[in-house]
Amino acid sequence: MSKRNDYISWDEYFMGIALLSAMRSKDPNTQVGACIVNNNNKIMSVGYNGFPIGCSDDDFPWEKNGSSNETKYPYVCHAELNAILNNAGGDLHGCKLYVGLFPCNECAKAIIQSGIKEILYISDKYASLDSTIASKRMLEAAGVKLTKLENLCDKLIIDFRENNV
User: Fold this and answer.
1) If you placed Cys at 98, which of 1, 14, 38, 111 could pair as Cys (CB 3.0 to 4.6 Å)?
2) Helix, strand or coil for residue 65?
């Protein structure tokens, strides 16, 4: 018997973990997950967008519009930053970051400072925003490779039923 040929690629695997992590987000509008991987294809950390530890999801706003402090924006920690902060102490220099949505300028600063050398993403829907333009400018200046993943499988199905394990 030979090995099966319908297994997923490393990119599909790690992006799948990022997208699964995004499902932990309680944000009613945007769920983003991130997965950091080293050169040996070992997962260093994962994260998703949400409030900092100790800040109740019920006590802070999830609104997109309104006065600044009445929206989620000053409070939410993005998936990329959460993944960097959740790292258990391993060196992130030279790592890859898988994330569903292209990082903002604030996350770009943390990505650069942590030593991550490649970002692999699916969506760049905010490409025309000043924050994304600034992000790309910094990332390119710092030599971070930007890779838009295409030709991934359409979907992955995770089945928790015992007879499928």
Assistant:
1) 14
2) coil
